[in-house]
Each structure stands twice: as structure tokens, then as C-alpha cells.
Amino acid sequence: MLWGFATLKCPARELFHRFSVQVLDRDLDDACPQVLSNIVWSFGTLGYFDDELVDKISSHVLVRGLDGFKPMEVSSMIWGMAALGHTNERLFEKVSEHVMSTGLEGFNAPKISIIAWSFARARFQAEDLFSLIEEFVVEKGMSSFNSQNIACILWAFAVFGRMTDDLLACAEEQIWSVGFSGFSDQSFVDLLWAFAASDLTGTCTHSGEDTVKLAAAYLRKRSIRSFSPKQLSTMAWAFARLGQFHDQAFYSLEQEILRRDISEFDTSEMTFIANAFRAYRNSRNIANMCNLSGIGIRLLSRLDAEESSATTVECNTPESVSDCELWPEETECEVFKKGEVFKAKVVEKHHKKCASVRSERLDACIPFQAC
Which residues form the RNA-editing substrate-binding complex 6 protein domain (predicted)? Predict the structure, then answer.
């Protein structure tokens, strides 16, 4: 049931709360791995954090072990834990040991990238696991990785300062073959953050160009109206950090930021933006190109009018909280034997709120039945 609501991103906080109350009163021994992973994934997808419920499932898994979990169930569960900010070190250590014991057999591109992302989001260092992932990815290549998978992998390795030339070259091979059109806003920003945090612009293996320069040029084609203030400031920081002062990229960023109310940006975001555009203007001064470009002048004047941006503040790396999603098609919800967990009237009430959710899918995901 929860899987259906989470799949459609349908708000159902009351339903999830009632579910949690019922689970806390029950023994989890009858819940199969798929049910446990779907519960955590569903709560994580809708951002409904319940300390007691998550702690109970974590404790149960630690005692029960992961031997009966499929790769999809492991990745879905640990993704949900990370998305909810649940950082039980013993659980992450157990997942790391389990995944390593499999040699990544059965783990495809989405599952591998989600595992890496989850550990990075939780800031749980697992050096042996990441070494295994890197070795696996470099050997197999990234031809099966989509844009989100690539961004998740590079972001995760950059968080721990583990980006290597081999991994980067492997990712670039795929990026240059498919381009940036498939990247979501967050994936695009995560990718730029990963390059900048690692002080890498690319391996320069493609006609002397590098990947970050390609990304900057791509902004000429892409609308950035849907980007959040944090994403805009992170892009500006990334381009400036790497010395990629592409006129069109900074022009696009300036126009979008000027279009918005400055109150949308917090102090740190305005500081990163101001420093990035000052660096851009300085680069143009050095190149004696100020007379050719007025990019950044209006924006800096506007930011300087704000007390928070009047003085240049020393900034290092903006915090990156990636929002990598685990899509419904990457989880499973098989048909279980029907069981009565919620009263019919509760289900009916939420059916009306989300009429597009098919009743057979909701009934299929009622937990604590044989898998």
C-alpha cells in the first residue's frame, strides 16, 4: 500500500502514521525483505521520518542479517535510510560487508550508484566498498549508466575525496556519447559539484576539450528557470572554482538570478554567487576584455547593495546535499497474499485522494505476508 502512495508522490501522512503505529506493535519476523525495503523506501520517498519505526527496522535487520535480501532490496532500503538522514553506523557497516561479500554480483548500474550515493549522503566512510565499486565500474564501463547514475557515482566519490582519473575517464566516455540533455537539474549540479570539489575539469581526451567546458556551453541551450537558488549558486561556484569563465554560462546565470527576488537566496548562496562573479570579472580584467562584456556588473551592483554581500567572505566548498531519487521502477512490489492491516475506510479515504492509484496495487503491498 505504502509503495503505491510513494510511487505517485501522493501525500498521505495520516495513513503513514497509522501504518507506523501498527508496525511498532508487531513483530517483524513475519515481514519479508521486500516488505522491509519497501517500507523504508516509501517513507524516504515522501520524506516522512519516524525515529521509532526506522530504529525498529534497523535493529531487526541487524539481528536478522541481509542474506535473504536481493540487491534491489538492499539498495532500496539503504537509500531510504540515507534519504531520511538515518545514519546507524552498524547498519551501514553491515550493508557494506554484505555488498562486498557478493562481489557486486546482481548489482546493476542503478543499484551500484544508489549504494554509493547512500553511503556518501550518510557520510559513512567505507573505503573497501568504494574501492570495489571503482574497480567494478572501471572494468565494466558505464555504458549502462544513465545520467542520474553517473551523477550519483561521481558525487559520492567526490564527497569522500576519492575521485580518480580512471573513474572520471570512464564517466566522461558516457557523458560525451550522450550529452547533458538527460540530466535533471539536481544531477547536472551534482556533476558540476563533483568536478569542482575534486578540482578536475576533465581528462581532455576529447579534441582538447574538457567536460566542464562542455557543460558550460550546454547552458546556452538549457533553461535554468527551474533551478533552485542553491543549485544556481553551486553552479556559479563550480565554474569559478575551476576557472571556467564561459561568457554564456555566466550570462545565463546572471539573467536568471536578476529575474528573481534576492530574498530567495540565503546569505551563503549570495556570497558564493558574488565571489564567483567577482572572479569572472577579474578574469576579464586580466584578459583586457572588460570593454567587450558587461556580464556580472548589474548582478554585483545588486548584491553589493545587500548588507550580507557587501564584503567578500572567504568561502571554500558549498555543502552539497544531493537529492538523488530512487525511481519506482527501480523498486519492486510483488503480489502478496492479502492481509488486513488497515481498516477499509482508511484505505477508501485515501483512494479518493489519489484516485489514480489502482486498488490492486495498494492491496498487493500490504506487509507481513509470505513473499
Answer: 19-197
